[in-house]
Amino acid sequence: MRCGSLRRLVLRAGALGVLITQPARAIDAFEIQVYDGTANSARAPGLELHVDHVLSGATAATPPELPANHRTTFTLEPSFGVFDFWELGAYFQTALRADGEFDYAGVKLRSKFVTPPGWYDRVRLGVNFEFSISPRAYDPGRYGGEVRPIAAWEDEHWLFAANPILDFSFASGEFGQGPEFEPCVMAKRKLGPIALGLEYYAGLGPIHHPLPWSAEDEYVYETFDLISLPRVEVNFGVGEGLSTASSDLVAKLNLGYVWDPLMSR
Q1: Least confident of 8-12, 56-60, 104-108
Q2: What angle do CA 242, 128, 57 make, to 5 degrees?
Q3: Domains (ranges, CATH) in the chain?
Q4: pLDDT in tens, 158-182
Q5: Does 11 have pLDDT greater than 50?
Q6: Please, which residues have CB within 8 angstroms of residue 131's CB and are 6 or more apart in sequence?
Q7: What is the largest CA-CA distance in the chain?
Q8: Using CB atoms within 10 A as the burial measure, which of 60, 87, 189, 225 is most buried?
Q9: H helix or E strand, kind and range, residue 257
């Protein structure tokens, strides 16, 4: 009895050690974006296209994951404003691999809540919830979720926003390692019809056991935004990896359009 109990204790400790030392999931490769606390108007549909390309990255990966080097991802994101403070959206993810193969890479559903227009002059707050189902090559856990708090401040010259994201894996019907912390922030200076700025993204590992810096996924992007067209979104950036676990160089392009609100009956 004592030997059996001791053996079970050792096995559980070993399993816990595997979870703690398991590397963190990489930052979301299909939506490289900091939410600024805005949403579609009530009954207004929108559509975004996210195109991200790894110019230089890892050429090997632990199966079933695939190497990121020279991979291009294409994500289509339809959205709809239920109310001025509530927006629903979805993602259809695909990937063009370095070997020329084109993959289906998963779907996501999201629900975003924000403070309504006019709530406060310059501050916007909100939270976004997501649920995802992906092939194991793009998410070993297959099922995942995200809770993304949103805080933003904007005036006629500057825009600042922060999203301290909690990322969950629901592998085998469990919470895996527990939530991982993936913060992202941005700072942008408005210059007439455009804005120039910096965006920072990081995957710091499980909240209860952060990774060492060399194993974290961290990037800084220099970005360009077209802000002169109120219905149109154009965001382009080039990001450099800051740690050995990151890709060396990544380019991103986000294009979006929001239509007039649908007429109510």
Answers
A1: 8-12
A2: 25
A3: 2-258 (2.40.160.40)
A4: 999 999 999 998 765 445 567 999 9
A5: no
A6: 108, 109, 110, 143, 144, 145
A7: 76
A8: 87
A9: strand 249-258
Query: Whole-model pTM?
Result: 0.87
Cα distance between residue 262 and residue 265, in whole Å: 9
User: Torsion over CA of 168, 173, 177 and 183, rounded to 10 degrees?
Assistant: 0
- Give the lowest-confidence range in 136-140, 191-195, 217-221: 136-140
Residue that has been written with the tokens 């890479």 in this structure: 105
Of residues 23 and 85, the one with the higher pLDDT is 85
Asked whether the beta carbons of 111 and 72 are under 8 A apart, the reply is: no
Residue 9 pLDDT class (50, 70, 90 cuts): very low
Phi, psi of 2 (to 5 degrees): -65, -40
Structure-block tokens of residue 114: 């924000």
